[in-house]
Structures are given as C-alpha cells and as structure tokens.
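Q: Focus on the chain.
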Amino acid sequence: MTTVEQLYETLDQRRRPEDVAEMIAELLEDQLIKHEHSILEKAAKCSLKRSVFKVKNHKN
C-alpha cells in the first residue's frame, strides 16, 4: 500500500496527528521547503513509528 493510500485511510481511523505528520513528511520529503520540513518534523517527533524505533534501539 502506498503512503497516499495510507493517508486516505487515516480519514476514517482517527490517527494521531503525530503519525499523520510522519506520513506526510515521508511522502513529500523531496518537495518541502526547509520551513515546512521543520514544522512536520516537530509534529512527527513523537510519532509511533519513531517511538517504536527508539524502543528497539534501546533494547540492544
């Protein structure tokens, strides 16, 4: 499933804003200006994807 399809599915799933910001940042990373990227990074810093990655790294 593409990121765009995943974003579309979030409309009915009530996903956390941090997780949606993470998906948008991944989808548009090459198209964002520095300011937009900074805003999305700030919003996504507590996304589940990043939190899970941190937990996995701390276990090693």
